[in-house]
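Following up on my earlier message about heme C. Here are the inputs again, as you asked, copied directly from the submission form:
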Amino acid sequence: MFHMDFFGDRMLIAVIAIVHVIINHALAVGFLPIVTLMEYRGYKLKKLGDAESEKWDELGYKLMFFAFVITTSIGALTGVGIWFSTALVSPASIGSLIRVFFSAWFFEWVIFMLEVIFIMIYFLTWKKSRVDIKSKRNHVRVGAVLSGFSWLTMAIIVGILGFMMDTGSWTQNKTLLDGFFNPIYLVQLAFRTPMAFVMGGAVALFLTLYHLKKHTEFRTKVLRNLNLWMFLWTPHVFAAGIYYYYKIPELMLGNITVAIGTQAFQNWYDSFLYSLLALIIVSMLVNIWTVLKPKWTSKYLMLFTLFIVLFTMGTFERVREFIRKPYVLEEYMYSNQLRVEDYSKYKQDGILVHAVYAKYSVVTDLNKIEAGKDVFMIACSRCHTVAGVNSVVNKFENLFSPNGEPLDKTKMQQYIPVMEKARYFMPPFPGNNAEADALVDFIISEQYSRNYINGAQSTGVDISKQQSEVLKN
Ligand code: HEC
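Thanks, got it. Here's what our run produced:
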């Protein structure tokens, strides 16, 4: 297994994916329609022979420059990065998703290609399109189609994200459409769409103040429009957010207190929610203020709203990713990549016999600690490290040895077979008693040494004698 013991494997995916989703929502899905509307406004004024037309067109172009550079570089690279990181950290679940959603992803890929082609055309022909009114009209159309493609790629991916939280009727029928139109799909789309619009608005406001430093009548007009845009979409985010909350499978809701701010801050859950609500209200007040006092506004104030908007989005993503635990694909596969239906077999035979890449297939007195490490890798390492973020040793110390006294073997042995009952977000332990025992010994052996352990990317793989026999035949 690929493993990074310092940051933890979850963090690798999280960092790449969060950068990607922010760029996608704030600079593509929510931003492209704004740019297109600005250009459209310029086009309308041009038809009337109004001189302000050029200002709208120029501002639209400047905003598009920023979106073009960021989406085609960091945006595209992090998109590919999600594939690399998920395929390394969680190959079984990404494999399952590809099997279920092959056609959806293929379709999404085609649309993504079109999106890239259209963004090239849109940005690179902008200046040329100024020659006459007909070219401008066609150019605005390209912007509209581009905005549509951009939304469509999101609309497809959301089907897959929703599936991970609630597989719906797919578990019985196993068809693509059952999986795609899962119970979470439409609500999540209804939430993400206005959220992206608000995010796009916040970025556009910041960039507008960055480019138009002086207070002018034109700037006031732009600010009023952008603020109105944000102000109108924010309640949709609220409404969809509440609806979304009621669509979350009930057992998962139990995870929310930990999801929002880790176990350590679990009791702050309420105050955290209220602060978030307060922040959103403050951001709406900033919108009102900017409309009423366009002279007294600055890009720093906008940076503040931008921060609030991104923070809200980040919280949403964190919660979404957390509460679906213990599953990576609800009811079908746990986050440790083991299928729910295979569990009884693992509990009975032990997990090591079924693992291709484990050094030993049976725990003995001589190999206990090494075998225990393999058990840790298989059962815990997708979420825990030994010595880094969310260290399993720390977690047991917090529970049983708060003052650093030696870990109590018996208590740990009692904990592991019922761990899913202690904390719903953890999958049940997949192995037999001897393996639980080996895992405990391994964790205890690390209590005072805390070595970062290496993944397959640096140590290669070991195959047990039993597995190599299987492979030979
Ligand atoms: C699906 C991910 C996941 C898997 C797999 C997982 N854990 Fe956890 N575990 C967590 C999270 C998340 C926490 C809480 C982290 C926090 O907020 O402090 C946790 C907490 C714990 C705690 C502390 C619980 C408490 O009440 O304080 C222990 C002990 C623990 N894990 C042991 C294990 C062991 C042993 C394994 C492997 C057999 C394992 N976990 C597998 C995600 C996981």
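One observation from looking it over: The CA atoms of residues 261 and 268 lie 8 Å apart. Hope that helps, and feel free to reply on this thread.
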